[in-house]
Amino acid sequence: MSDADAAVTRAHHAEWARVVATLTRRFGDLDIAEEAAAEAFATAVERWPADGVPPNPGAWLTTTATRKAIDRVRRENNRADKQQAALTISENDPPEPPGAIDDDRLRLVFTCCHPALAVPARVALTLRLLGGLTVPEIARAFLVRETALEQRITRAKAKLKAARVPYRVPSAEDLPARVSAVLVVLYLVFNEGYLATGAGTDPVRHDLTAEAIRLTRLLHALLPDDGEVTGLLALMLLIEARRPARVVAGELVALDEQDRGAWDEGLIAEGHRLVRERLATGVAPGRYQVLAAINAVHTSARDVRDTDWSQILALYDQLVRLDPSPIVALNRAIAVAELDGPEVALAAVDRLAGRLAGYHAYHVTRADLLRRLGRGEQARAAYDKAIELAGNTAEIAHLTRRRDRLG
């Protein structure tokens, strides 16, 4: 990859959401914003190798995208009102009045999470426009076909346009009703960065985890008493703290094999503090708070042998009541294996086959349990299926090594 190509890739990670959000605010049209941003990046791919990388890539991309958007508006005769608005806006125009949210990207999240859309559509649209994730990446996160995901995004944009949903700062009264869907969005953006699935991408995309944490911090500052916002922030921090030990020499390192001395003590301390703050309120926790508590138990153990699996299983039992999904049941089975043995856990995992057959972590878990039971041939087949479904290069390397060690 040339220096210019690398610069475009870095700019896409750092500036995509900012460009789309800026154009959405200016033109009030999600389609125009996304298409103009895409055209600007395509122009950068063509021009930066020859002209050199501009001193301020973000400003260059925003200016180029704005020109592309204005050109499109001019070509569409039925957009005379938007054309006039676009052409009369200048850098000297007074800023819009401050509202509850003063960050364009977070405003875009709330706009895409409008109640007019079903929750899956809100999440898919926001991941595409804010996170810059591709359709295949989002489809992996949703465990759905790419064609279905593409249709979901298209319909979401059309519904927002038909409902004339404005791009504006939500009022303080609107925030609580929107928070739940926004948290789902932020968690999925974080997860895609934590275990990136895109072809040719780094196995861990720190730009996405950092953006998800930044936006969640901002949301926490706006809603400091919302337990689930606090819980999600704590969860992200405790997972991010383990990032320095998660990938070594291009291979994923499982939690039980990680160098715990490489974990970020500052993030762990902050995450633990947030978990304790929520416990002190005495309010029944939600899903993200329980997940944060599970990770707090993991990060409290300085040696994997010191892990309090009884507490983790009790927390999973609490989580199952809040979220009786097959993925939660799969993760609970991992704790069961540590307390009751791999055979009991395998029986629980096999009961999930009908709902998780296309989920690579299901086959990873089965492979590990079969390996521990000494059923090498079945374990190899499960590893093969997990490798086939996995989209992360570091995880594929890890699974391949474990499979090959079976002999």
TrEMBL record:
Any single GO BP term: DNA-templated transcription initiation
Domain RNA polymerase sigma-70 region stretches: 18-77
Molecular function GO labels: DNA binding; sigma factor activity
Record carries keyword RNA-binding: no
Keywords for the protein's UniProt record, in alphabetical order: Sigma factor, Transcription, Transcription regulation
Domain DUF6596: from-to ranges: 178-277
Signal peptide location: none
UniProt xrefs under InterPro entries: DUF6596, RNA_pol_sigma70_r2, RNA_pol_sigma70_r4_t2, RNA_pol_sigma_r2, RNA_pol_sigma_r3/r4-like, TPR-like_helical_dom_sf, WH-like_DNA-bd_sf
Region (Disordered): 76-100
Domain RNA polymerase sigma factor 70 region 4 type, first and last residues per copy: 110-160
Family note: Belongs to the sigma-70 factor family. ECF subfamily.
UniProt-listed PANTHER family: BLL6612 PROTEIN (PTHR47756:SF2), BLL6612 PROTEIN-RELATED (PTHR47756)
Protein name, per record: RNA polymerase, sigma subunit, ECF family
Source species of the chain: Amycolatopsis tolypomycina
